[in-house]
């Protein structure tokens, strides 16, 4: 990431104006960044993590992509299984390592806390909140 010694731009962004996607309307943007002495080159988060754990970042990226592709394939197969099980009237069956069970459509009743709060703002619903600790984790999303 390229930042500027002059600090935060008028628009509030913390980058060199030359590299900004809104530089056309910016009066601070340099014409030639190579001639600018005010640039600060910082490593972005990806660069830092790739230096810290290069093999792990590459491997987990590949694995997460593979998992996403497999999940998509499984979802398609499950759609096919559902149709076939409904068509043949099969409720369950087992293979050597996996059991398959048809779960029919149903309705679910849930409690709409927002609607209650909207209709009865005088009620203090916070006494019904349940607080629990959640351990730190890493969320990985396939883009």
What topology emerges from the helices and strands here?
Elements: E1 2-4, E2 39-41, H1 45-52, H2 54-88, E3 92-94, E4 99-101, H3 113-119
Antiparallel strand pairs: 1-2, 3-4
Helix pairs in contact: 1-2
Describe this structure in words.
This protein has helices at about 45-50, 55-90, 115-120; strands spanning about 1-5, 40, 90-95, 100. With about 140 residues, the protein is mainly alpha-helical. The chain folds into two domains: about 1-40, no CATH class; about 50-120, no CATH class. A hairpin with a 4-residue loop joins strand 3 and strand 4. Helix 1 crosses helix 2.
- Helix/strand order: EEHHEEH
Model regions low in confidence, pLDDT < 50 over at least 5 residues: none
Strand content: 5-15%
Q: What strand line-up does the widest sheet have?
A: 1-2
Helix % is 25-40%
List keywords for this structure.
two-stranded antiparallel sheet, 143 residues, 4 strands, mainly alpha
Gist?
This protein has 143 residues and is mainly alpha-helical. Helices cover 35% and strands 8% of the residues.
